[in-house]
Amino acid sequence: MAQAGRLGRMRLPWQNVLCVCVCAVRVHLLSACKSGCESDPLGDGFVKRVGSELVDEGDKKFRFASINAPNLHRVEVEPKPAECSLRKCSVEEWVRAPSEYEIRDTLCSIRQMGASVTRIYTFSYGDGPGFHVNRDGVLNEAWFRVFDQMLAIARDVGVRLIVPLINTNWIEGWGSVYEYGDWANEAGYSFFRSQSQRAMFKATIELILNRNNSLTGRRYADDSSILAWELGNELTDDEFHGFPVPVEWTRDVARHIRKFDRNHLLMDGGFFSTQVLAVTEIDIVGSGWRIMPNRI
């Protein structure tokens, strides 16, 4: 069963802000469509924020309720190989690239549910051929070609994507902000306080935004199939989700994105904090919620 994300508005005395609550659920969609679905391609326009409202390219109010599709561009193998409990498995044993059919089928299913937006999971970070981003911010062409295909299909089907850039917690097969600590030879959870790690991350973002899709030729920063860049997934300034990301970090990274991309919306990527409302570059403030077993 999938839970819908919910979009709403919050009006505060000092500022209008758009708030999105994205449900952290894993979705395993059944085939709601056949091997393909009717093409309903997106135009070249972008969704913008006007005050506390989102509007589409025709200046019509844009609202949505939808689901997460975390495996749309990178599939976690399940069940996990039994031998991985006995030894350290390679990333290739934990994840695989989705087929064109799987990507299209998922997006068709979302579209047929009446949704026009979905949120994927982050890019993956680590050393070796199994990750999107390798040491020193080098992009892995093979995995980005899978991402290219996802963007092209999303554009054809008519579904816009929320794309979080990096994960807070380390997850097997995905990596996280910890990779930048390793690459900078800095110990501990220091991603949001380290200038060297921030510089490396900003360089990676620049490469991603300026990438040209190998199938469509579109620069990522100019691709209308992307609704929003989310600065990360569940970003917090400690390992235990106890402190919000420093406002200065959020503002600096958001401004860096705006240097190369003035088309897309920006989402903060943290657990809701009123401090982020002061960052004018942020269009959408998110909050993560979970339904935990035996805690309903």
From TrEMBL:
A Pfam family for this UniProt protein?
Answer: GH5_mannosidase
Q: What SUPFAM superfamilies does UniProt report for this protein, alphabetically?
A: (Trans)glycosidases (SSF51445)
Q: What is its EC number?
A: 3.2.1.78
Glycoside hydrolase family domain location is 181-269
Gene3D superfamilies on file = Glycosidases
**Span of the signal peptide:** 1-32
Where in or outside the cell it occurs: the entry states: Secreted
Tell me the PANTHER family matching this sequence: MANNAN ENDO-1,4-BETA-MANNOSIDASE 1, PTHR31451
Q: Which family does it belong to?
A: Belongs to the glycosyl hydrolase 5 (cellulase A) family.
Q: What is this protein called?
A: mannan endo-1,4-beta-mannosidase
